Structure to design on (314 residues):
């Protein structure tokens, strides 16, 4: 697993030249990348969501495109369109921005549901169907979407089916005082994003993802993951629990996190650490529970505290 660890550390160290003080978030993002999973970044404006996606693509040295989502964005603006060529007397396909390696869907909740759904096939199947023709997306293909949780006017909340396509939901949050002071010092001249380059070969990601499959997961830990998933489906505060896709994502995430730290086996703490960012956005609170102040991360934290783990069998 040294290959995965070395690859990850080089990339994370490079991204930290732009995004400082958020190593824990960067590691979780790296976990999603190693699992070829899509990521939803939800945070207030100005916390570095767009800059994070740009720095990641620059460090990987792969193709990057940004899609600015607005209410007038059409599905063909995402997937591409067939245009008639009078010289050849046939239709020619013009690929949309989805034909890339890393797609940043900025403010995805500002796009209409019809346009949001244009990403569903791409995220789930790594392919796009336009005018009855299916076209494969070249690996690696990752969607990093951002949204603002504060502003609701002119937005269209993502449906549960689309949220479930995101491997992980992350929040950068504000910096502490010392780190924000260091950020101002770093930005005293040219922005670091202008000087960082590729430090790893992003084309290796599919091969590294296959290596993650070899990380050992004990039967007891596998049962623990299933216990957590079923607990979300039975919890009194939740109208909707995590899907089977969610339990599989948690299983894969724990494997990738172990590989990231140079281990060939998963620990229970790996599962606990990743449960909230992997499972919370796949659940739905009861309206009454939300009015009482319950939050999805808090519910997942409570489930982790209560869910049994037969540690003696490990």
């Amino acid at each position: 697993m040294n290959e995965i660890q070395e690859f990850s550390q080089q990339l994370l160290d490079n991204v930290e030249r732009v995004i400082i003080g958020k190593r824990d978030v960067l590691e979780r993002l790296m976990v999603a990348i190693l699992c070829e999973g899509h990521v939803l970044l939800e945070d207030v404006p100005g916390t570095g969501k767009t800059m994070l996606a740009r720095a990641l693509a620059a460090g990987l040295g792969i193709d990057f495109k940004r899609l600015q989502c607005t209410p007038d964005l059409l599905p063909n603006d995402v997937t591409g369109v067939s245009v008639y060529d009078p010289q050849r007397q046939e239709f020619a396909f013009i690929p949309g921005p989805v034909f890339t390696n890393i797609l940043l869907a900025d403010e995805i909740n500002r796009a209409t549901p019809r346009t949001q759904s244009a990403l569903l096939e791409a995220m789930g199947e790594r392919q796009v169907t336009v005018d009855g023709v299916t076209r494969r997306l070249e690996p690696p293909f990752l969607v990093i979407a951002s949204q603002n949780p504060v502003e609701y006017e002119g937005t269209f909340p993502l449906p549960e089916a689309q949220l479930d396509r995101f491997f992980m939901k992350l929040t950068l949050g504000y910096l502490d005082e010392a780190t924000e002071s260091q950020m101002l010092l770093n930005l005293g001249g040219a922005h670091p994003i202008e000087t960082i380059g590729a430090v790893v070969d992003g084309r290796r990601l599919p091969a590294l993802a296959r290596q993650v499959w070899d990380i050992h997961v004990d039967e007891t830990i596998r049962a623990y993951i299933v216990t957590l998933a079923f607990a979300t489906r039975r919890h009194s505060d939740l109208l909707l629990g995590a899907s089977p896709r969610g339990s599989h994502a948690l299983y894969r995430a724990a494997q990738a996190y172990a590989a990231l730290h140079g281990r060939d086996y998963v620990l229970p703490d790996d599962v606990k650490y990743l449960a909230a960012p992997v499972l919370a956005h796949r659940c739905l609170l009861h309206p009454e529970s939300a009015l009482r102040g319950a939050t999805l991360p808090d519910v997942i934290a409570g489930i982790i505290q209560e869910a049994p783990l037969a540690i003696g069998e490990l």
Summary: Residues 215-314 form a domain with the Helicase, Ruva Protein; domain 3 fold (CATH 1.10.8.80).
